[in-house]
Write a structure and sequence with these properties.
By secondary structure, the protein is mainly α. 65% of the residues lie in helices and 0% in strands.
Length: 86
C-alpha cells in the first residue's frame, strides 16, 4: 500500500528535497540510480509531476542521512545554517 502526502504540503517537501540534494552535490541521475528508478521518474517526483509517496520520502531521507521529519516539516531552503550542516 502506498500513501500520498497531503497536496498542500508537497511543494514544501519537494523544495526541501531539492535543496538538500543540491547542497550534497547529488544529481537527479545519482538519486534515480540509488533509488533504482529511471531518471525521468525521479525528476518527475522532484518536479511535482509524479506523486511523492511517504515511501519515497523515507528512502530519500535515508539517502540524505537526514531525519524524515526534517524533510516533512522544516523550511530547509530558508535555513542557511542548516544547509551548511547537511
Amino acid at each position: 500500500m502506498q500513501f500520498a502526502l497531503i497536496p498542500q504540503k508537497v511543494s514544501g517537501v519537494l523544495a526541501n528535497i531539492s535543496a538538500v540534494r543540491r547542497s550534497k552535490g547529488y544529481s537527479e541521475e545519482y538519486m534515480a540510480d540509488i533509488m533504482n528508478m529511471p531518471q525521468d521518474t525521479y525528476t518527475g517526483i522532484e518536479a511535482g509531476n509524479i506523486a511523492l509517496t511517504l515511501q519515497n520520502v523515507i528512502e530519500i531521507a535515508f539517502i540524505f542521512q537526514i531525519d524524515t521529519a526534517s524533510l516533512l516539516t522544516l523550511d530547509i531552503p530558508k535555513l542557511p545554517i542548516l544547509r551548511l550542516v547537511i
